[in-house]
Design a protein that fits this description.
The protein is an alpha/beta fold. The protein is 27% helix and 28% strand.
Length: 320
């Protein structure tokens, strides 16, 4: 089969097309004929010059071709989506515990763009963030894939959303899908505007997509008993100063959502929670991923270049 391998690096991501054997599902796995796969910034960040290439693509949608031993509840021909190994290819393997059925209401591209963002956002907003209807959410870099996903899920939950972006055009596009307050900025100078929008109270939850350069400002923007989710480091700044008086006095909670150290069973628990709590919104069309652009798989390098340009609003996918 044809498969793309990628090697992130400081000078940009290198893409290599290889002819590789079609994988065989091990016990507990599914082999999927890939129909679409989504790009994720995490694959493109943190690479070192000279690092070996590896199969690219961490989420996809497609049809089950073969079921590994011990798998129940799925069969060949089922339409599925989920985390995968090597989604930028004609076939990919999925751990059956993390697979979700792709609703008929979603296209292949929309289904491919759903799993990782939705599960991370669910972790931030629901599992750890306890966001409730009527509460305020602040999303930095709101036009990113995770940012748009957080906006959409928060609105489905009945929350109000403030978003930051350096682009007035991006904010205007997101206002059409529910953004309540847009703050145009690329700097750590938004706390005053957030406090003004919330009558001086601050927000109940922050999703920090940017990283260390805005961490202190996010703390300032939080309300009493506010929660701060750290998910991205687009600024490549991995450290920040924490105001312990604010942490203590306002009874704040700071948490991360990386899945790097979680095992498959722990990730599967998040999958089950998302399907239970938000699955009806997906099936009913009330929660639908925003696709900025879709490229043919053969143009993967162009799709990656577009992501690295930071011009997107929502997700970028490739069709297989």
């Amino acid at each position: 089969m044809k498969a793309y391998w990628i090697a992130p690096g400081p000078g940009g991501t290198q893409v290599e097309l290889r002819e590789t054997p079609t994988p065989e599902p091990k016990p507990g796995e599914l082999l999927v004929r890939v129909r679409a796969a989504a790009l994720n910034r995490g694959e493109l960040l943190g690479g070192k010059a000279g690092a070996p290439a590896k199969p690219g693509g961490g989420e996809c949608s497609g049809e089950i071709v073969k079921v590994g031993d011990g798998v129940t509840g799925f069969a060949a021909g089922d339409r599925v989506m989920g985390r995968c190994a090597g989604g930028f290819a004609e076939y990919a393997l999925m751990d059956a515990r993390e697979v979700m059925r792709a609703p008929a209401s979603l296209s292949w591209e929309e289904a491919a763009a759903t799993p990782l963002v939705s599960l991370v956002v669910y972790d931030m907003l629901v599992a750890q963030g306890h966001l409730q209807a009527g509460q305020w959410l602040l999303v930095t870099a709101v036009s990113s894939g995770v940012g748009v996903g957080a906006l959409q899920m928060a609105k489905a939950l009945g929350a109000r959303v403030i978003g930051t972006s350096g682009s007035a055009e991006k904010l205007a596009r997101l206002e059409k899908i529910g953004l309540d307050v847009g703050i145009r900025t690329r700097s750590a100078d938004f706390a005053d505007a957030v406090l003004k929008a919330t009558d001086g109270k601050g927000v109940n939850l922050v999703v920090n997509n940017v990283g260390g350069t805005v961490f202190t400002e996010c703390i300032k923007a939080l309300a009493f008993e506010g929660r701060l989710a750290t998910v991205g480091h687009m600024d490549r700044t991995m450290s920040a100063t924490l105001d312990l008086e604010a942490l203590h006095g306002k009874r704040l909670t700071v948490f991360g959502v990386s899945n790097r150290l979680r095992n498959a069973a722990q990730r599967a628990e998040t999958v089950r929670g998302f399907v239970r709590d938000l699955g009806p919104h997906l099936e009913g069309g009330r929660l639908r991923p925003l696709i900025d652009r879709a490229y043919p798989l053969a143009e993967l390098s162009s799709a990656i270049a577009f992501m690295e340009s930071d011009a997107q609003v929502g997700k970028i996918v490739v069709r297989v």
